């Protein structure tokens, strides 16, 4: 990537880190699935792969150092019924939402709401923080897409 | 001159922005320095150097209401002792701001820093220079200078700075101007990326219908496809013996045991394939196979 002046820290690891994490998560999926029924529906499979992709992306991008990746991992862990400390986040969310409702441009708020729904963990962030997280999220997403594209190209019969 | 200044001080005290110590501090020394400030405003460049002394002044009224956005690269002391709070300050000489901006900046900084110090509980420690991160907002001519609008303006400028960064990342954002349009573009981009992820995962599930991502069955080709982005130096023949040149550049995301096991398997690998790629992919296979039970796989 071009080294443009970016005051916000949005560096993202190289592609191979993402690739490694993704493959590891996929192989982990396989070991988990050996106990379940073999004839899965396509949608279930797709969902599993998608979830694996997101989780691996979150881990590759910095684990719990980033807000969006942290919330992604929490969501995933919650679905696996693992113990998650959610309470603190909830309280923080309500406080921030109260603070946010006091100010805010009506023009940018509508779009900011949509962005918050898209970016994981966006509900508890101020708009400026949301922008930072979006930038990092976009970079990681594009990296993950590249990795998956490579994998698909490698696996597809020639 | 001093009288008007004193009046303003009293007004400020009514606004409860100035501590009662302020008046004591505004002794004879303060007034002299005040005169220098006034003369500076009247003249121009000659009093430049007198700013260095200003950090010792504890009482001065700022005539302008400016707080800068970026830090002025002038006297370091002024910068270090600048304010963090935004206050309502009546500006009589706002028009001077538009001329000679640089000098006014430092002057404002010093003045506002002096005001800030006067408001601090220990004003004797004003000579201590501490490096802090301040939000500087510059009030332009004709704009409201009260606290809330200053804060609002600071927030908006912070936001616009971040939007500019986003603009560099999202392709096609340059043509659209305005916050709303850019935000829409960004939202569309994020949505398209997420759709791509979903689409690719569908493709992957089709290609591997039984979800067999068993590492042994993945071919070397697939690994190479993933790792084609690595620099050319990595794929040299010398990689076969060079165990330390593991390609991952951001190794903090990996468990170090992983790296060690990879190194050992690379050394012990008996493959005679010519390209260094295959060695590495083989070592990665072994590593992933052996590590399948480790906690490294679990969701942290």
UniProtKB/TrEMBL annotation, chain A:
Subcellular location per the Swiss-Prot or TrEMBL entry: Nucleus
Gene Ontology BP, a term: regulation of DNA-templated transcription
Top-level taxon in the UniProt lineage: Eukaryota
Record domain IBH1-like N-terminal: where: 18-79
InterPro entries associated with the record: bHLH_AtIBH1-like, IBH1-like, IBH1_N
Keyword Nucleus applies: yes
Gene Ontology cellular-component annotations: nucleus
Keyword match Cell inner membrane: no
Keywords for this protein: Nucleus, Transcription, Transcription regulation
Protein name: IBH1-like N-terminal domain-containing protein
Organism: Brassica campestris (Field mustard)
Lineage of the species this protein comes from: Eukaryota, Viridiplantae, Streptophyta, Embryophyta, Tracheophyta
Automatic annotation (TrEMBL), chain B:
Limits of the BHLH domain: 143-193
Highest taxon of the lineage: Eukaryota
Stretches the record annotates as Disordered: 74-129
GO MF term list: DNA binding; protein dimerization activity
SUPFAM superfamilies reported for this sequence: HLH, helix-loop-helix DNA-binding domain (SSF47459)
Compositional bias ranges of the Basic and acidic residues kind: 90-107
Entries under Gene3D superfamilies matching the protein: Helix-loop-helix DNA-binding domain
Biased composition (Low complexity): 113-124
Location of the protein in the cell: Nucleus
GO biological process terms held by the UniProt record: regulation of DNA-templated transcription
Stored SMART domains: HLH
Pfam family, any one: HLH
InterPro entries listed in its UniProt record: bHLH_dom, bHLH_ZIP_TF, HLH_DNA-bd_sf
Keywords tagged on the record: DNA-binding, Nucleus, Transcription, Transcription regulation
One Gene Ontology term, aspect cellular component: nucleus
Name of the protein described by the UniProt record: BHLH domain-containing protein
């Amino acid at each position: 990537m071009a080294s443009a002046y970016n005051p916000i820290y949005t560096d993202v690891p190289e592609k191979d880190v993402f690739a490694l994490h993704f493959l590891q998560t996929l192989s982990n999926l396989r070991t988990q699935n050996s106990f379940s029924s073999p004839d899965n529906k396509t949608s279930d499979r797709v969902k599993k792969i998608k979830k694996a992709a997101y989780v691996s992306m979150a881990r590759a991008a910095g684990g719990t150092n980033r807000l969006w990746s942290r919330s992604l991992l929490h969501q995933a862990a919650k679905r696996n019924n693992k113990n998650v400390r959610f309470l603190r986040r909830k309280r923080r969310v309500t406080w921030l939402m109260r603070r946010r409702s006091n100010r805010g441009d009506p023009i940018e708020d509508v779009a900011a709401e949509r962005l918050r729904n898209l970016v994981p963990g966006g509900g508890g962030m101020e708009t400026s923080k949301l922008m930072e997280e979006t930038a990092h999220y976009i970079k990681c997403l594009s990296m993950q897409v590249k990795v998956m594209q490579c994998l698909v190209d490698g696996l597809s019969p020639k | 001159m001093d009288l008007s200044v004193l009046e303003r001080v009293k007004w400020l005290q009514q606004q409860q922005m100035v501590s009662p110590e302020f008046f004591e501090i505004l002794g004879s020394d303060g007034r002299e320095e005040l005169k220098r400030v006034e003369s500076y405003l009247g003249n121009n460049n000659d009093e430049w150097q007198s700013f260095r002394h200003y950090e010792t002044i504890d009482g001065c009224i700022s005539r302008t209401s400016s707080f800068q956005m970026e830090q002025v690269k002038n006297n370091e002391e002024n910068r270090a002792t600048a304010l963090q709070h935004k206050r309502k300050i009546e500006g009589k000489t706002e028009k001077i701001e538009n001329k000679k901006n640089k000098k006014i900046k430092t002057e404002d900084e010093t003045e506002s820093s002096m005001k800030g110090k006067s408001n601090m509980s220990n004003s004797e420690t004003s000579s201590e220079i501490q490096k802090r991160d301040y939000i500087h907002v510059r009030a332009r001519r004709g704009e409201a200078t009260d606290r809330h609008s200053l804060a609002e303006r600071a927030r908006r400028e912070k936001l616009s700075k971040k939007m500019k960064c986003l603009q560099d990342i999202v392709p096609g954002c340059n043509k659209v101007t305005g916050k709303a349009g850019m935000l829409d573009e960004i939202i569309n981009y994020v949505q398209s990326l997420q759709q791509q992820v979903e689409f690719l995962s569908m493709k992957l599930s089709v290609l591997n219908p039984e979800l067999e991502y068993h590492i042994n069955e993945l071919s070397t080709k697939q690994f190479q496809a993933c790792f084609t982005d690595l620099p050319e130096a990595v794929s040299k023949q010398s990689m076969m013996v060079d165990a330390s040149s593991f390609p991952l550049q951001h190794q903090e995301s990996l468990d170090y045991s992983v790296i060690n096991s990879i190194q050992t398997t690379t050394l012990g690998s008996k493959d005679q394939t010519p390209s260094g790629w295959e060695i590495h992919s083989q070592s990665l296979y072994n590593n992933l196979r052996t590590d399948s039970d480790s906690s490294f796989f679990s969701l942290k």
